[in-house]
Amino acid sequence: MFPYLVKRTLLSIPTLLGAFLLVFLVIRVGPGDPAYTFLGEYYTPEAYEAVRARLCLDEPLPRQFFSYLQRMFSGDLGTSYARRSPVAQLIWKDLTATALLAAFAEAGAVVLGLLAGMLAAVYHGTLLDKVVMFGAVSVFSMPFFWVALLAIYFFAFRLGLFPIAGAGGPDAHSVLYHLVLPASVLSLRHAAVFARLVRIKLVEALETDYVRTARAKGLSSLVVIYKHALRNAIIPVVTIGTLDLGHLLSGTAITEVIFSRPGLGSLMVNSVLQRDFPLVQALTLLFGSILILMTVLADLLYGVMDPRILYD
Length: 312
Hints:
The structure is a single chain. By secondary structure, this protein is an all-alpha fold. The protein folds into 2 domains: 2-73, no CATH class; 94-305, MetI-like fold. It is 77% helix and 0% strand. It has helices at 2-29, 34-39, 45-54, 61-73, 87-122, 127-141, 144-158, 172-206, 209-216, 221-233, 235-250, 253-258, 264-273, 277-305. The termini are close together.
């Protein structure tokens, strides 16, 4: 396993650098100039040229790219153009909010998906199975932003059960109170994926020979399902869940923007709109690293849960 881990780590470096290079070029070739954002109302032609020289924006793109890589490998992610603060400090400030949202959404998706998938599998072919799967497909097919807006309208605006926006604080009760609605909405789409996967795998497991043998021994249905069938059916769910958590950590932008929550997603959106090059680049590296790390972790977990897996 260790040689495989080293190999995957080495192979992930070119992937990460390629993604970073693509983002580096796109944000510089696109419209807009961060020097205007930096100056604001104090813009003058002389100040504009001075700021571009200070931010090294007047240098050729290859030189800017390799200069940033050199600073990055020395631990310097730069200073935000718009916020005038160290990039690492800004990311660390919002990392907790995003991690908390992603963790609660993933936990809700796994629990709800497992229960729905198991229910559909146990009653496979019945009306209940069709209703559960119809609900899962319907939720997965709905645009996420539309579901989020509906949830805000009904549960926050009309019923007043949850706050419309914000992250709450400073006590834990307020934080959790503001977290329930966005985490629930975010978990629905992922729960639908888990439900369909659990149903497929559990139906396959219930039709295998070892399950038939367990039933022939006189074991109860609960023991057969939970101890024998589910243990094998849940292996793909664990690996997919690990990848899903990586996507949640790096893809909460829509949720954070709609619910006006602080976090890495909303920070990324604002930094793109403000042409904040250092912040966009650092967040790209962070999101890419998270996805690669979760991919490797999913492969390792699959091997741990199924010892028959061999690593090359």
